C-alpha cells in the first residue's frame, strides 16, 4: 500500500492539533483520507465513502475536476503570487471581481477579497463600523447576530456567531455584538404555526434594536439558512419581516453566503432564493469549490459608494487577498457552474428529487423531521416520535461514526444529522445517499435496541 495507515495515525495523534476535535479522545484513530473523485472520498485503506458533506459544505463541483487543476497550474506558472495592495492588481483578481459582480444582485458592484469565510466576516465588522463613522454616526457599532449562528473561528467570527462553546472558550468576545433568536421551528416553536413562529423569531430583531437603541445598532448578520447550526431552514414568513425591520430602522443587512452561495439552494446566492437585498455578503467555500482557499465580501452600492467617495485609504487587507492562483481557480469554478447549468439543475431537478427522497427518511423510527432546501438536508433524531423527546446527548456523534462505517459522510450537530452533497450529484447518486443514510440510521437504532 502507498500509505502506512497505523504510522500516519500515530503521528497524527502525537503532533497534529485538529480543528474542532478532542485530540485526547482522537488517540490514534483518525480517518486518513487520501483520494477523491466525483462525490466520493477514499481512505488510506481503500474504502470508498460517499461525501454527503462536500468536504465542509464547499466542494460544489465535486472532486477531481481537471479544469480546476489546470487553472491553478497555469496561473502558478505565470504568476504564482502577487498582491493587490498599493494600487497594484493582477488579471485573475480583476476578472474574478468582474464575474462575481455580474452574478451578484444588481445593487452589488464591488468585492473585497479575503482568504476565508472567517476573514470575510472580520472584514465585514470593520467595514460596517467604518461605514457608520463616515455617515457621522460613530456610535452605531453594535452588530446583531443570532443564537447558534456560525460566522467563523477568528475572534470576530466567533463573536458574531452564536455558538455557546465558542463564547465560553478563549476569553472575552468582541464588544458590541448582540444575539437574537434563531428561526428554529422544530426545536423551539413546534407548538406554534410555523409562519407565526417565523414572524415571532424575526420580530426579536426589532425588540433587540429597541433594547439596544437604534442610534447604537449598525447591522444585522445572518446566514440565509443557518448551516453549521443544524440546517435551520426559516419559515417563509421570516426573511421578508427581517428585511422590513432592517429597512425601517435603516440598519445594514449582512447575509453570510459562505454556505448558501454558489448554488447550494438552487440560486447563485441564498439571498436570491429568499428575495432579500443585503448590503454585504461574505462569501468563501463554494467560490472555489474548496480547491484553493479564497473568500471575499460582496459590497452593495450603499456601502461601497460611501467608502470609495469619502473613506480614503481603508487600512485593511490580507497578504492573500485575491491570491492569483486561488482567484484563477475560483473564476474557472464559476464558469463551469454556469456552463454546465449546475445551479439550474439543483433548482429544477436534483433539488426537488433530493427533497422527495430525503423526506422518505421521516418514516424512520429515529427521525422526528426530515427537512431540506436545494441540496441542504437535515434529520432530527428523536427518542420518541409521538412526543418528539430528544435522546441523551451523544447519539448524533454515534450516528455520525456509524455513517463512516456504512460508507457515507454525514455531519452531526448535536442530535441533528446534516448533509450538503456536491452539487454535481446525480439522481442515482441521491438514491444511494438516501439508502446509505437509512442504513446508518438502522445501525444506530439496532445499537440502541430500537
Ligand atoms: N460563515 C459561515 C456561514 C460558515 O459556515 C463558515 C464555515 O463553516 C464560515 C463563515 C467560516 O469560514 P472559514 O472556515 O472559511 O473561515
Automatic annotation (TrEMBL):
Coiled coil: none
GO molecular function: transaminase activity
Record key words, sorted: Aminotransferase, Pyridoxal phosphate, Transferase
Chain spans, region Disordered: 1-23
Source organism superkingdom: Bacteria
Family annotation (Pfam families): Aminotran_3
Keyword Ubl conjugation belongs to the record: no
Protein name: Aspartate aminotransferase family protein
Cofactor(s), names only, from the UniProt record: pyridoxal 5'-phosphate
Amino acid at each position: 500500500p502507498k500509505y502506512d495507515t497505523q504510522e500516519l495515525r500515530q503521528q497524527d495523534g502525537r503532533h497534529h492539533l485538529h480543528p474542532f476535535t478532542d485530540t485526547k479522545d482522537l488517540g490514534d484513530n483518525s480517518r486518513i483520507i487520501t483520494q477523491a473523485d466525483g462525490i466520493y472520498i477514499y481512505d488510506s485503506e481503500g474504502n470508498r465513502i460517499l461525501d454527503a458533506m462536500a468536504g465542509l459544505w464547499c466542494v460544489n463541483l465535486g472532486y477531481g475536476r481537471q479544469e480546476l487543476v489546470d487553472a491553478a497550474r497555469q496561473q502558478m506558472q505565470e504568476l504564482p503570487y502577487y498582491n493587490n495592495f498599493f494600487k497594484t492588481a493582477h488579471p485573475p483578481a480583476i476578472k474574478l471581481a468582474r464575474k462575481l459582480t455580474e452574478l451578484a444582485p444588481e445593487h452589488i458592484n464591488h468585492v473585497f477579497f479575503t482568504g476565508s469565510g472567517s476573514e470575510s466576516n472580520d472584514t465585514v465588522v470593520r467595514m460596517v463600523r467604518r461605514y457608520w463613522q463616515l455617515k457621522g454616526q460613530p456610535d452605531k457599532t453594535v452588530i446583531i447576530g443570532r443564537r447558534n449562528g456560525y460566522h467563523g473561528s477568528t475572534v470576530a467570527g466567533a463573536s458574531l456567531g452564536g455558538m455557546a462553546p465558542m463564547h465560553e472558550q478563549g476569553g472575552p468576545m468582541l464588544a458590541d455584538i448582540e444575539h437574537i433568536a434563531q428561526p428554529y421551528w422544530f426545536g423551539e416553536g413546534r407548538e406554534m404555526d410555523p409562519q407565526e413562529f417565523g414572524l415571532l423569531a424575526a420580530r426579536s430583531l426589532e425588540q433587540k434594536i429597541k433594547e439596544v437603541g437604534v442610534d447604537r445598532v449598525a447591522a444585522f448578520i445572518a446566514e440565509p439558512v443557518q448551516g453549521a447550526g443544524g440546517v435551520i431552514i426559516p419559515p417563509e414568513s421570516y426573511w421578508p419581516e427581517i428585511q422590513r425591520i432592517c429597512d425601517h430602522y435603516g440598519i445594514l443587512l449582512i447575509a453570510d453566503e459562505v454556505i448558501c452561495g454558489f448554488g447550494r439552494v438552487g440560486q447563485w446566492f441564498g439571498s436570491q432564493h429568499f428575495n432579500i437585498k443585503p448590503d454585504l455578503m461574505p462569501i468563501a467555500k463554494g467560490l472555489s469549490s474548496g480547491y484553493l482557499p479564497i473568500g471575499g465580501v460582496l459590497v452593495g452600492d450603499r456601502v461601497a459608494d460611501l467608502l470609495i467617495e469619502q473613506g480614503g485609504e481603508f487600512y485593511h487587507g490580507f497578504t492573500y487577498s485575491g491570491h492569483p492562483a486561488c482567484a484563477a481557480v475560483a473564476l474557472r469554478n464559476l464558469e463551469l457552474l454556469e456552463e454546465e447549468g449546475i445551479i439550474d439543475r439543483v433548482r429544477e431537478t436534483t433539488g426537488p428529487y433530493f427533497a422527495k427522497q430525503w423526506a422518505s427518511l421521516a418514516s424512520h423510527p429515529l427521525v422526528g423531521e426530515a427537512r431540506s432546501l436545494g441540496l441542504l438536508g437535515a434529520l432530527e433524531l428523536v427518542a420518541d416520535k409521538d412526543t418528539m423527546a430528544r435522546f441523551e446527548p451523544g447519539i448524533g456523534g454515534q450516528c455520525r461514526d456509524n455513517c463512516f462505517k456504512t460508507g457515507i459522510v454525514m455531519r452531526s450537530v448535536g442530535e441533528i444529522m446534516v448533509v450538503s452533497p456536491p452539487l454535481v450529484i446525480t439522481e442515482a447518486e441521491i438514491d444511494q445517499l438516501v439508502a446509505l443514510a437509512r442504513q446508518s440510521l438502522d445501525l444506530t437504532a439496532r445499537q440502541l435496541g430500537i
